[in-house]
Structures are given as C-alpha cells and as structure tokens.
Amino acid sequence: MAKLLISTQVYENYGDAIKPHFKPKGGSDYVVKNFNHKSFLDTTEIVMSLRPQIECDNEYFHEYIVDWIIEEDDYLTPFERDQLEFEGKIRFSPKELFI
Asked: 13-61, pLDDT tens digit by residue?
C-alpha cells in the first residue's frame, strides 16, 4: 500500500473586505492512508473529490491545494522528520482524510 499526501498553501487577509491584502502564510499537509491508486487520472479525480474537505475561500482566509504525491507508508513529511529530530517524537501529523 501507499499513502496520498496533499499539500496546501494558506493566504490570510491583512486588509479588510473592501481593500483585501492577502499574504501567503504557510500551509498544511493532509494524508489518505492505505491508498491504492490505479492511474494518474484516478488519483487526480480523488484529489479533486477531497477539495471540499480541504480548501477554504472567504474574504479573510484562503487555503488551496498546491501539490499531491503518492509515497510509501513509512514516508514522513519534512515537518514530521523535524519533530523527530528536535523533539524525539511526532506530536503533529498531517490531518487524515478518508475517501
């Protein structure tokens, strides 16, 4: 098996509804465990079907999918690896999504 890792970009509005001023402010990782992909097109359709669970778009905050990859079950995100290196354990994992 594998896992599907989806990454997002977050933007926050430092202005207001009348004069918005969005700045990029990091992002999040989401994971679908035990992912059994058949093809690129199938995976793309699955990622697009997960958009309502991930993306947000209002006058103060935007979050958009920017990338997705399929990795082995034991793959750790850079943030998870940093937690292991500096704290000795993973306290914050990607949010798990279900198809």
From this structure: 999 989 999 999 999 999 999 998 878 889 999 999 999 999 999 999 9
Q: Are 24 and 13 in contact (CB under 8 A)?
A: no
Nearest to 2 by CA among 91, 66, 50, 69: 69
Strand partners, 65: 8
Helix (H) or strand (E) holding 44, with range, is helix 40-54
Q: pTM (2 decimals)?
A: 0.91
**Token digits of residue 85:** 């290196």
Strands 95-96 and 29-35: parallel
